[in-house]
Amino acid sequence: MGSAQGPSPERGVRIAIDRGGTFTDCVGNYGGKDVVIKLLSEDPANYSDAPLEGIRRIMSYFLGNEIPRGQPLDTSKIDSIRMGTTVATNALLERKGEKIAMVVTKGFKDCLAIGNQSRPKIFDLAIRKPDVLYETVVEVDERVTLEDYAEDPDRSFTNAEVRAGTPEAVSTDLVMGSSGETVRIFRRPNHEAVRSQLQEIYDQGIRSIAVCLMHGYTFPDHEAAVGRIASEIGFGHISLSHELMPMIKLVSRATSVCADAYLTPAIKKYIAGFQRGFEGGLGSKSVAKTEGVRSARCEFMQSDGGLVDVEKFTGLKAILSGPAGGVVGYAITSYDEDTKIPVIGFDMGGTSTDVSRYGEGRYEHVFETTTAGVTIQSPQLDINTVAAGGGSMLFFRNGLFVVGPDSAGAHPGPACYRKGGPAAVTDANLFLGRLLPEFFPKIFGKNENEPLDVEASRKVLQELADQVNRETGKQMSVDEAAYGFLTVANEAMTRPIRSITEAKGHDTSKHRLATFGGAGGQHAVAIAESLGIKQILIHRYSSVLSAYGMALADVVDERQEPDSKVWTDDGQTVEDLKAKMEKLKEKSRQALREQGFGDDEIAFEEYLNMRYRGTESALMIVKPTQEEAKESFGGKDWDFGQAFVKHHRYEFGFTLEERDVIVDDVRVRGIGKSFRWQEKTVDKQLKEVKRQPVDNSKRHSVSHVYFEGGRQDTPIFKLENLSVGDTIPGPAMLADGTQTIVVTPNADALILETHVVIDLDTSKGKEVPGQTPGERQVDPIMLSIFGHRFMAIAEQMGRALQKTSVSTNVKERLDFSCAIFDATGGLVANAPHLPVHLGSMSTCVRRQAEIWKGKLEKGDVIISNHPSYGGTHLPDVTLVMPAFNQAGDKILFYAASRAHHADIGGISAGSMPPHSRELYQEGAAIKSEKLVTGGRFNEARVVELFYNEPATRPGCSGTRCLADNINDLRAQVSANQKGISLIESLIEEYGEETVQFYMVNIQNNAELCVRNLLKEVSKKFEGKDLRAIDYMDDGSPIQLQVSIDAEVGEANFDFTGTGPEVYGNVNAPQAVTYSAIIYCLRCLISQDIPLNQGCLKPIKVNIPPGSLLSPSDGAAVVGGNVLTSQRVTDVIFKAFKACAASQGCCNNLTFGFGGNMAGEEVVKGFGYYETIAGGSGAGPTWEGTSGVHVHMTNTRITDSEVFERRYPVLLREFSLRKGSGGGGMHKGGDGVVRDVEFRIPVQVSILSERRVYRPYGLEGGEDGQVGLNIWVRRTERRKEAEDGKEVGEKEETEIEERRISMGAKNTAAMNAGDRIIVCTPGGGGWGLVGKEKIAKMERDPTAAWKKGSFANREDMALQA
Fold first, then answer.
1. In the Cβ-directed half-sphere of 600, how many Cα atoms lie within 13 Å?
2. Which part of the chain is the Hydantoinase A/oxoprolinase domain (predicted)?
3. Phi, psi angle pair for 1130, to nearest 5°
4. What pTM was estimated for this model as a whole?
5. Distance between CA atoms of residues 560 and 581, nearest Å
6. pLDDT above 70 covers what percent of the chain?
């Protein structure tokens, strides 16, 4: 295990433990000897605490005598205990933490209920948002903001002499925050009022509080004051956000501080119980004491991969405690500092499959991730759950093989667990001979002493095979069906692994795969093959690698402080940052000394968190090593600036030379080096090993195992019988009591001292399951794989666009979509980012394909945004790129991306004018132009189209952010290129004919799903036509009649009766209606189906020409995309009686100043655009959800603190609008109140609906409340003396506030101090008030997943 080099010389047993969900793994080491023990985490009949029982067994083994259960363990014989635990994760999952209160700035009590306002799954009508962790909220009447704003074109900076945290800060209004930003204090908290509020919740029995105040990350004084008062009252646990994680973003910090307050008491309780099992103390404080029984060091693994003393272990840092050990384990045992080959960790257990990466000799940390529905802001290893593990359930649905995400769990578990469970991945492996019952613990059946049940697996798989054959007319054997499910399972896992790696600029094929966990060895070869990886490493302790990793880990102390400096390569900035860094290092050094480390055992990693001005994508940059500094930075090891530029180019593919680089945070990771790894690295062993073919006498047995093409006689070897240097050709099975390793026919295994190494022979090629040459029948397995592949291409395009874009709209709000299309422009796969883009892009691509037929060449890109050419509204700009065959004479596919540009000119900043009457007033309108010719980007034409042309129109300006437009267009081009190259590699892998064949059939599959849905609907409504009507606020009707032909499953959507084109901007291009129909059908099917052109094949749509849903060429349409689309959706759902109306609006708020109006001087300025959440409609089995985006949009809202940092605003309130949802058996969700005060004069526009007609209730449910937009206008008026006489001239005016309704659509020049209050509509109710509720919220099967960088991005991308 490596020798002790740390603070305690070898004076006892060293123990490492990973307490997992099902098993607790223990590794003990004494005198150079290891012992491994695996026991059940829960076994109340035999012991109360699994880790204590594990320690008892290890001590009994090493001391040579049985220690009785219950006897306190002697710590004098123990050197150290290291532990990873799921206590925090379980408390979070089961919501069994401490009762807590959240203390927050007045106006933000609902900040966590609203979150970022997006809904987790865009096609779920019953929206499930995670529950908040607190019982109650205390709003403190205090307020500070930042004095300057980042988007200021003049870059002015206000200096403040007084620093936050000093006695002088109590009496001045401007102070310098700890981030270097100047803070204005508007209101200080009244201490007595705070005391009375806190006393009230204390009297209610709450003992743990979480404090998070606006801008507390840089101005901690008010939080500290609340903390002091709470301490005086007697609260047992007080979490202050500035102490835990002083990083900007109110919602993330508040969630984190709540998680800490919620979990830390539970952890302390557990630790206290654990410590009672020992005679003598645990932890560094106890070790330092000289009297009494000698104590043992005790450290817990944190989420960041570092150990911490038992006394300092907290809830916030405990969430990934167990999995972090596994990452440390494979990082130390599989990575070689000399060869520097990066490693992908693949940890597949019974209930989850986790993926991570280790490269460049450093752990990859992320600072915002989601676990159990809670988004945490804290350094964590980047661990991503990509599947439900061996328990992933198997289904055959809609002609496709589906694996997961539902899990059989540990109880009842897969069918083979003998508890009547469903078919799962484990069953497929067992039945095909890839899992060996004789090597699996016999812990099943009534008496928990029987082996896995192969017959039960066969039975459930036979049922699935029968279903496949019945529904497809094929003759598939059980073997083929089971193998098909494994192939699809591997494809489903590969997709996110590839994304995680490639999203950061890495190439999967240049990695090794380190596999561990009970089920990893059965899938490793297939996963590696798909990723292009040629070598797999499996450690001898792979099944207990998390525990083993803890034995090898270092003790870590993390420190971080915010900053806001503009980076310069030398001078005062660097000196200030160095001083800050040194201060943090000293604090960290002191903390590690207290844990018994000498200065020679302490090392530091130094980081600056840096980003380009105007972006929010900060990168954590580590200080270059001396070697790197010599190689790349002219010997300057403090050249963070160049290191940032290099890293930015690597990860995002571009740099922004003209922009300042901002330092957001200074971070130090202090490392107490406790143990040294002394075994030879894998690469050294590979160089020195003498290979010999394995002796056949070592075979344990021969089994009949299924591989591609059929069952083969496969030798089985026991791992302990194999010698170093043995090479085992595939097919073969290697097994011991904890794992089974499958070596496929195209691989070879080599035994080393520490690892099994599997090499893949890529020359043998991989066989495609179930496909014979020349066969052209649809294979459901291949169809499922291609469904994944096509979708993966669209997703990776989306990631490429998000990565390389610059604007907030694309990079943070994710207002974009990417898709691939067939040669005619029919949609093949669309990564579902925004529903309003779903069907509409296809109209655009079809039109461009017709216009440019025969005129396009490789590398050409077309640009279009015109509504008559398949556009939605002008800010949504579409780029289309063709993919040719090898000869280059035939277009096979198109790749397209559509992104919302923050400004493209027109009469108002943000290009979302509420009063546009003609299309030209909304900005640049492009019908069809070539943007890129043969790979050359025509920037001059962009300037002409976006900047010069719009400014020639009366009252219009060109774009107000041309640089962002150009950068985002380039990002769209690179996303399209990504799509084309992925399509080309797919064709290379499977052949043009096969890819085209399945492209057609995946559309047929979607068509079939929609036909089946329509048949069901017709049955439900007894063949009657479905009718509905609803109104826009101007009284324009939208009328629909749906006639269904039940025999063939076709429907006619007839919008006859819809109002005429409007002299306003709520006209919606036809493409928008198609999007709404596809979206509604997908919601009604309520299962994952491929989203493509097939969905619309059974649908005929009749839209009256000249109506507001089919307007003329020059009609204004900006509101059609964001308002009318929502009403069309409401009307469709009303016709289908699916749910009550949701808020039916996007509440589009824009503000800004500046532009280049014709004949006027160019004014530098900025534009800001946001959409605001409301209430969702209730349904037959669900309540409406409050404060969420609905139906046709799902963009995030800018975090409150970031909002105030970037723009000259003060957010007075962002809360739920109580009572705005309609009543009913199931209540509609409430809207929100958003109160924004402007600190400088700006032009403000609101574009909204549902300010007149209320969102309807259904089945007797009440309507939701309409929205309201209020302008709070500060005006001067003459002041009158009390007796009615006028006062003297000196004080003759006073400021009065007038509240003025702005109606639904308006624009106003607002002055400093003016406010806009947007009250958004609620959702309609369902069923009569007072009727008994039948709402049931199904649990999201992915709720427990660890969501690192990939899943966080996926949640952002709002995948279905």
1. 3
2. 253-558
3. -55, -45
4. 0.88
5. 9
6. 94
